[in-house]
Amino acid sequence: MMAVTHGRHVPRTRVRLDEHVPVDHRLSRVYRAGAGIFGAFLIAFGVLGLMHRIGFFGTGGDTVIGLNTNGALSTLSIVFGALLLVGAVVGGNRASTLNMIIGIGFVLSGFVNLALLRTDYNVLAFQLQNVMFSFVVGVVLMTFGMYGRVSGRLPHDNPYWKARNPGS
């Protein structure tokens, strides 16, 4: 299959973006910062929630740092915080992809838990402030993950632009 680029025919090849970005590329700092900041916050939130000895699936309205929580939500926060911290340590495209995936998960969680508010299925004890937190953290994590990778106007020296435009 051939692609037309600036009037020339260039063979299309499947390009893996992580092959073209050096490990120490400056964008990696952005991905690491996003993963590290939110990972540390989620772990702190989870640990504080577990320290309050709240029931695992309790819906009694216990709050930590202004957010409603229970043992299950605290445990999930620690797990996802640890994943983000691992991404911060690894860096590079793995951190970027992890930020995007977990960010999407937070946004989806916000929608699901918004639908479950005030029902018996609200096992994570979400309240409206938790839903809003999920939306905000999800969008910010996605932004950290997509920074420099997703745009219609990437500069021509950007490694992602180069990978998408071989031969230019």
Automatic annotation (TrEMBL):
Keyword annotations from UniProtKB, A to Z: Membrane, Transmembrane, Transmembrane helix
Q: Does the keyword Membrane apply?
A: yes
Taken from the record, one Pfam family name reads: DUF4383
Q: Where are the transmembrane segments?
A: 30-51, 71-90, 97-116, 128-147
Name by which UniProt lists this protein: DUF4383 domain-containing protein
